[in-house]
């Protein structure tokens, strides 16, 4: 699932380490009741590699990729006795001031490319094939904003793992051998309150995020009291080991509608790591001192999926079709 750098054709499925793209579509669907809908979905997933080639081959420089991930409820419907160890629905978090809600989602597609039209065309054909077996839960088209900035103005994604660390942080390993090579996916759609944010000084904004806005240089962690977003999202276990996730957040928006957002997507080897980040952000550390980013950003969706390795996905969908 993590490429070896020898790929002759730079279009791929289930490649979590696909490079940061200029455009992305985050598509969340629910699957209709009954075996017929399930079988129809399985049939489409079985042919997904071909669909990626059909669209992606039209411009190889466009580097089209798609990751397919399944929610906990859908996994159960596949009636396989084996499940990824940590897979479960999104657990809502109720902080004193802010809430991370859980919203529906059986199937999730993370479509990435250097060109918006490739993402669009792939999504169009995919939805055409899925037809009435699915219903739309959420659809967001994201774009790269200058030097990978979010709409609050900060460079987003800097502390992501790189190189060999990507696989170690994102792919399930020998701890769950049946599902090795797969990855837990957590998504949340945030909308920003731009005016109050713009009312802060540059220094206040930088303290909230934990980095300098222009240079992107990290600020020191607070010794006590209110911690920055960057510090709250850093997870160190009792052994002193830091646990990373891979984020591929993208801005989205419609200025005419006053909509300015960040689509958060985190891939991780262990679901508990992303969960812990969310708890530290929404409940605070120390408790009560929540992430101040949330005073200017509201989570409107929340869902958990598992993106299986290609061979696991194809075994799963073939079993349903027979
Ligand atoms: C760091 C923005 C939500 C996890 C950062 C940084 C920015 C940022 C600007 C600093 C640069 C970087 O390292 O990427 C945002 C925005 C969010 C959001 C705008 C939504 C409104 C989340 C959520 C999580 C998360 C929901 C986890 C559940 C992280 C992590 C880091 C980080 C792990 C790196 C920490 C480190 O320095 O090690 N985020 N973030 N972020 N964020 Fe977020």
From TrEMBL:
<dbReference type="InterPro" id="IPR048328">
    <property type="entry name" value="Dyp_perox_C"/>
</dbReference>
<feature type="domain" description="Dyp-type peroxidase N-terminal">
    <location>
        <begin position="15"/>
        <end position="144"/>
    </location>
</feature>
<dbReference type="GO" id="GO:0020037">
    <property type="term" value="F:heme binding"/>
</dbReference>
<dbReference type="GO" id="GO:0005829">
    <property type="term" value="C:cytosol"/>
</dbReference>
<dbReference type="Pfam" id="PF20628">
    <property type="entry name" value="Dyp_perox_C"/>
</dbReference>
<dbReference type="GO" id="GO:0046872">
    <property type="term" value="F:metal ion binding"/>
</dbReference>
<protein>
    <submittedName>
        <fullName>Dyp-type peroxidase</fullName>
    </submittedName>
</protein>
<dbReference type="InterPro" id="IPR011008">
    <property type="entry name" value="Dimeric_a/b-barrel"/>
</dbReference>
<keyword id="KW-0575">Peroxidase</keyword>
<dbReference type="Pfam" id="PF04261">
    <property type="entry name" value="Dyp_perox_N"/>
</dbReference>
<dbReference type="InterPro" id="IPR048327">
    <property type="entry name" value="Dyp_perox_N"/>
</dbReference>
<keyword id="KW-0408">Iron</keyword>
<keyword id="KW-0560">Oxidoreductase</keyword>
<keyword id="KW-0479">Metal-binding</keyword>
<dbReference type="GO" id="GO:0004601">
    <property type="term" value="F:peroxidase activity"/>
</dbReference>
<comment type="similarity">
    <text>Belongs to the DyP-type peroxidase family.</text>
</comment>
<dbReference type="InterPro" id="IPR006314">
    <property type="entry name" value="Dyp_peroxidase"/>
</dbReference>
<feature type="domain" description="Dyp-type peroxidase C-terminal">
    <location>
        <begin position="147"/>
        <end position="309"/>
    </location>
</feature>
């Amino acid at each position: 699932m993590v490429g070896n750098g020898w790929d002759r054709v730079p279009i791929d499925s289930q490649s979590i380490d696909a490079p940061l793209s200029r455009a992305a579509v985050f598509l969340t669907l629910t699957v209709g009741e009954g075996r017929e809908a399930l079988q129809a979905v399985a049939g489409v997933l079985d042919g997904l590699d071909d669909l990626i080639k059909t669209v992606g081959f039209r411009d190889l420089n466009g580097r089209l990729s798609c990751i397919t991930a399944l929610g906990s409820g859908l996994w159960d419907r596949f009636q396989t006795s084996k499940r990824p160890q940590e897979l479960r629905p999104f657990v809502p978090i109720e902080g004193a001031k802010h809430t991370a809600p859980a919203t529906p989602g059986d199937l999730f597609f993370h479509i990435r490319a250097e060109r918006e039209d490739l993402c669009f065309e792939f999504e169009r054909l995919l939805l055409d094939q899925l037809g009435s077996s699915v219903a739309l839960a959420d659809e967001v088209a994201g774009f790269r904003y200058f030097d990978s900035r979010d709409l609050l103005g900060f460079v987003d994604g800097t502390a992501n793992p790189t190189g060999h660390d990507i696989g170690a942080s994102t792919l399930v390993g020998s701890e769950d051998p049946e599902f090795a090579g797969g990855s837990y996916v957590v998504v949340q759609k945030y909308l920003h309150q731009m005016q109050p944010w713009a009312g802060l000084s540059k220094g206040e904004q930088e303290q909230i995020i934990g980095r300098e806005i222009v240079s992107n240089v990290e600020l020191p962690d607070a010794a006590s009291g209110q911690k920055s977003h960057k510090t709250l999202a850093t997870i160190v276990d009792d052994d002193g080991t830091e646990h990373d996730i891979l984020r591929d957040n993208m801005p989205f928006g419609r200025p005419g509608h006053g909509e300015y957002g960040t689509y958060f997507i985190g891939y991780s080897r262990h679901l508990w790591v992303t969960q812990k980040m969310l708890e530290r952000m929404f409940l605070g550390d120390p408790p009560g001192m929540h992430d101040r980013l949330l005073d200017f950003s509201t989570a409107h969706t929340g869902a958990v999926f598992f993106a299986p390795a290609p061979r696991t996905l194809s075994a799963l969908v073939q079993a349903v079709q027979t």
